[in-house]
UniProtKB/TrEMBL annotation:
EC number, as in UniProt: 3.1.1.n2
Cross-referenced InterPro entries: AB_hydrolase_fold, BD-FAE-like_dom, GDXG_lipolytic_enzyme
The BD-FAE-like domain, residue ranges: 147-253
Top-level class of the enzyme under EC nomenclature: hydrolase
Taxon lineage: Eukaryota, Viridiplantae, Streptophyta, Embryophyta, Tracheophyta
Protein name per the record: protein-S-isoprenylcysteine alpha-carbonyl methylesterase
Membrane topology qualifier: Multi-pass membrane protein
Keyword DNA-binding appears in the UniProt entry: no
Family assignment from sequence similarity: Belongs to the AB hydrolase superfamily. Isoprenylcysteine methylesterase family.
Membrane-spanning parts: 106-129, 161-178
Location of region: Disordered: 27-59
Gene Ontology CC annotation, any one: Golgi membrane
Length: 286
């Protein structure tokens, strides 16, 4: 019998299988213990071919350490890219004139807002859940013609009324901005009406003046059913709201001087208070 046709002992085959498994475990080191080419004697025997099939399966087994190494490289690459983008972003801001001083102030403003957040949450809870707040009372037919009413807990007797026109640079004004003022004054037995009105670009200054005038008319003619005294109505405005409310008073006074038909009178307003407003009276406002 020639050496090529000799049968392979079972102990030798098991040893080769063990070496192949150890070779797969050491893939990262790139030091195979044996060559990928099997050292078993070649022969036409079908038994040898059947015995080599498990070796092929072993060679194609997945290599987990290599995957872990690839994941580590990808993670490091992502971190490096993130650092690069962040550094370039700060550099771009510096080229645009936005220096580190501005960024520091922005961060300080964010921290300041976070410190005030507990107070904001308390006011928001009062605004949405207090039984003394009547939200979004409709006073006109135009968009955003609504107002919020803050009523005292004690409903006995007629109460003085404060009509408040919020600010917001004529762009971001909203009736809820007066919730803290409404809370404080209603606790002192005063009814507060915070008016909402169309902002730019939804409306012009003339539209804002018209909306606020409509809201004041509603308060003068309907506040009695909420416990308010129509003979003790006070008008307040802040920032853009101060400008709009002052324009409303002047426009209403001009109408009355011309003996035009009006729904409310300037004489019904007992006092006016405008805070931080730019009182510029333009012809298109009046």
């Amino acid at each position: 019998m020639s050496p090529a046709s000799r049968p392979v002992p079972a102990s030798l085959e098991s040893l080769v299988n063990e070496l192949e498994e150890m070779n797969d475990r050491r893939t990262d080191a790139h030091e195979p213990l044996i060559s990928r080419v099997s050292s078993l004697p070649a022969g036409p025997s079908a038994n040898n071919q059947r015995r080599r099939k498990p070796l092929a399966k072993t060679v194609s087994a997945p290599c987990y350490p290599r995957r872990q190494s690839s994941f580590s490289r990808e993670l490091g690459h992502a971190a490096a890219e993130t650092y690069l983008i962040t550094r370039l972003s700060f550099k771009l801001l510096s080229y645009l004139g936005v220096g580190y001083r501005w960024i520091t102030r922005l961060l300080a403003l964010g921290i300041y807002a976070m410190l005030l957040m507990p107070g904001f949450i308390q006011v928001a809870f009062y605004y949405f859940f207090s039984p003394n707040v009547r939200r979004s009372v409709l006073y006109g037919s135009q968009p955003r013609n609504r107002l919020d009413l803050y009523l005292p807990t004690d409903r006995n007797g007629s109460k003085p009324v404060a009509v408040f026109v919020t600010g917001g640079a004529w762009i971001i004004g909203y009736k809820a901005w007066g919730s803290l003022l409404g809370k404080q004054l209603s606790e002192r037995d005063i009814i507060v009406a915070c008016l909402d009105y169309r902002n730019f670009p939804q409306g012009t200054i003339g539209d804002m003046v018209e909306d606020v005038s409509e809201g004041i008319s509603f308060v003068c003619n309907n506040v009695a059913q909420y416990g308010g005294d129509p003979n003790r109505i006070y008008l307040m405005g802040q920032s853009a709201g101060a400008h709009i409310s002052s324009c409303v008073l002047v426009k209403q006074a001009i109408k009355e001087s011309r003996e035009e038909v009006v729904c409310w009178s300037v004489s019904q307003i007992k006092a006016y208070f405008g805070s931080s407003g730019g009182q510029v009276f333009c012809p298109f406002c009046l």
